[in-house]
Amino acid sequence: MSLRCLVTGATGYLGAELVRELRRRDREVRALVRSPKAASRLDGTGAQTVAGDVLDPASLEVALAGVTRVFHMAGVVGHRASDEPKLRAVNV
């Protein structure tokens, strides 16, 4: 069975390193990216990029098609009580 992995937050520092490591292990990787400019950080990795956002269910449906494993690396940071809704929506 071939593992096809989806990595959210794939263009961040940790997400991009995970993509590279998964590819080194010969895993099929689909990277969820929010912008074409950010996707260029994954050039040369062999990962498939798909435009989307963890807060957009329609884009997740496309990104998850055929995926057997998800690595949720997307995240936001906040320190105010007003940040709580977005923290929960993205990080959880």
Question: Briefly, what is this?
Answer:
With 92 residues, this protein is of the alpha/beta class. Helices cover 35% and strands 21% of the residues.
Structure explained in plain terms:
By secondary structure, the protein is α/β, with parallel strands linked by helices. It contains 4 helices and 4 strands. The chain has helices at residues 13-24, 36-39, 57-64, 84-91; strands at 4-8, 28-33, 48-51, 69-72. The chain has a 4-stranded parallel sheet with strand order 3-2-1-4, sandwiched between helices. It is globular.
Present the secondary structure layout.
Layout: E1 4-8, H1 13-24, E2 28-33, H2 36-39, E3 48-51, H3 57-64, E4 69-72, H4 84-91
Parallel strand pairs: 1-2, 1-4, 2-3
Using brief descriptors, characterize the structure shown.
single chain; four-stranded parallel beta sheet; 21% strand
Characterize the overall form: globular
The total beta strand count reads: 4
Strand content: 15-25%
Helix content: 25-40%
Name the poorly predicted regions.
Answer: none
> Which secondary-structure class do the elements indicate?
alpha/beta
Rg computed from alpha carbons, rounded to a whole number of angstroms: 13 Å
Order of helices and strands: EHEHEHEH
